[in-house]
């Protein structure tokens, strides 16, 4: 009597899902075309969420990806943006660099806001000086795009800082605008939620009055990297008594203040900025031609739990753009941008930069995340 050989489709559904979870997105796109049964498994929202968190080995198919938000200032006043996607292997070496742009018509300038869980958010403006924006979501894997609804009756503001975030516990994508009103120094929060497809405006007069207006950025410093840690966005500000960090909790939708490493370091170091290291809040202090220190907040609930992680001296002019991941920091050096290995002390030049200026950077991970909430 002959026995039919068992195939992959004969396995229980949970084992099939387990196998699919370990495949890169490009392979899953092929598997979706095999049959309707595979397509149903892969398109399940629970599978999409689980695939984001499942660890996979770093190969050329699942490389670490870094998005660079670049501006060409050589054509001022007609500023142009040129965003690039870098693929980086497990040794921290760049093996590919390619331009990226959503396949949808737009008028004006396309500014990178950030990337979370497979989606990229852009701020589309008529020009650099206008405050009117259209926000665009794009998934490069599924090629889906969508403009977000505009906020009606918005108040005029002096400056706006925009971030894009994702709360894994609630599977919620959010766009956050931090603004200062023309008529006061108060901070206002404009918050978009994908679950409701609508905007909400919050006002916080307490923190808003404490922050000293410094130029057009009212004391808040928008960093090149997306500073998201412990479910909060963070911005650096400076008081007359030292440096503080303003936070906005996406889950609780609340503003807060965190004391920096310790007051007095600003008198020695000429520059400092925020960073996120292994999901922990960090601060980078440096002098251009002297040394660099990186401090990490080990316990987010304890204000003074800062620990020194890196302390290095350099014989060249150093300007950190921001810490990325895997002990790699993007620096500007001799009119070029490099990825500096903080452990080895050597750097690799980022290719195809030319006259471009790095405005913002963020990580990118491929996913099947939809650009609108699934019903």
TrEMBL record:
Organism: Heracleum sosnowskyi
Cited InterPro entries: F-box-assoc_dom_typ1, F-box-assoc_interact_dom, F-box-like_dom_sf, F-box_dom, SCF_F-box_component
Name this polypeptide is given: F-box domain-containing protein
SUPFAM superfamilies recorded: F-box domain
Span of domain F-box: 5-52
Pfam families: F-box (PF00646), FBA_1 (PF07734)
Highest taxon listed in the record's lineage: Eukaryota
